[in-house]
Records
---
Amino acid sequence: MFVSDILSRKGALVHTVTPGTSVGQIAQQLSVRRIGSVLVLDDEQVVGIVSERDLVRALASHGAAALELEARNVMTRDVVTCDPDESIDRVTELMTRGRFRHLPVVRRGELLGLVSIGDVVKARIEEATHETEALKAYIVAG
Ligand code: AMP
């Protein structure tokens, strides 16, 4: 299974903010949309990512004043991305090694979607279930 298979089911929607969006507004978005991260875009270019972890870190360092900080102050700038043709195994490895749970999907500079660890785990379970069913059918047929 490939990243493109996940995107064909969940679609291309990626929630984004600008570098000037406040931490308070980002927290609202994450809560209302029930998501774990937002991508930071400047002029349609991916310039960072802010996840729940970054908000927790900002709160721990700045207390309530963190709500007034902006995305540019708390985002991770070196965003790791993947190609839609990459395998689920490969993105699992990228997420495990990088210790993050969100991976934007980009091809030739164009943002095509975002896969989360939840999407990846779901796809892996589906794949394992199909394999088990196919093996059972093979055994019964034999
Ligand atoms: P997460 O596990 O996705 O909540 O993120 C943990 C940390 O990794 C946070 O500091 C995020 O900003 C950062 N992060 C999340 N996704 C990525 C990514 N694709 N590339 C680089 N850093 C990321």
---
Amino acid sequence: MQDLNNIVSQFALEGKVTAVLPLGSGLINDTYKVLTEGDAPDYVLQRVNNAIFRDVDLLQHNIEAVTRHIRGKLAAAGVPDIDRKVLRFIPLKGSPKTYWTDGQTYWRISVFIKDSFTYDTVNPKYSAFAGEAFGNFEAMLADIPDTIGETIPDFHNMELRLRQLDEAAEADCAGRLKEVRDILAEMNSMREDMCLAERLFREGKLPKRICHCDTKVSNMLFDAEGRPLCVIDLDTTMPGFVFSDFGDFMRTAGSTLPEDDPAYDKVALRKEIFEPFARGYISGATFLTPTEKDNLPYGALRFSYMQAVRFFADYLNGDTYYKIKYPEHNLVRTRNQMALLHSQLDNFDYMNNYITQL
Ligand code: GN1
Ligand code: MG
């Protein structure tokens, strides 16, 4: 265990630190809340997982550019209370850099937004606002002047994810494949359909835009009433297809159960979330082309499938990527995401009809 107080002391914080406590449920980085005395803000300390995010300098450069640009847009639009609507990262003492490293581990600190909450689900009323918020997020970034690099190259490339699955199955290094061949066979039967976005891109029919690329519902802050405040977890904000942001929200808030719940027969698409979220998203994402809009239901399928493929590949690899709490955790996640995919497939015509009339 590293000396967190020493790490915290590298940053130009206000107030005297009283405690550093674990926070959040992310599967990649380690997150802590830094409490301070009196009126000074509390903070969020994160250790960036540099085995996954190999170029932390690029990553923080992206995040600084994205938050600066959004801050400017909000100010220009006269939005009140901007500090609750966009993250603010703290520089080091005596340096403008917003991360600290001892050469092995990488750390950063942002201001904790007071009276904000994260949820693993969202009610129908506020999912319209959540859709609008993610749509707006992309709309605001459409004219960012900085170059935003890929913090994980080919992060949401379905063809690459399938190649990684092939490699994991081929190597079978944890000896787990024999028990779960049925899952692999089913995934393989869907490959072509799920790589539609990559084909459209090659044909010049689908653009890449700066997207958040991790819009699970727990990556948004809400106020006490449940209204969205601020989009967080900006590590994967990079060029991608809009399906990423639509699909990942539908995968999480748009499911009856969390991504690792083993009650597979109860996993289903929540229409009462899909409808307002789609409406909100389309109203916020003012730039959508017809191809992007028409394929949003595919975006939902794509992300349940992609996440199932990623969890499954990690299971076959012996759990080297996602944090797990028990040995079968990634398998349970895989089956859960496949159950969601089935429910979304059952509702594919319904989703298409709904989007068409918007
Ligand atoms: C990871 O960092 P976190 O826990 O918000 C993952 C996402 C997955 C998600 C599944 C960098 O997100 O892509 O969708 O877990 N992030 C990375 O819960 O791989
Ligand atoms: Mg997160």
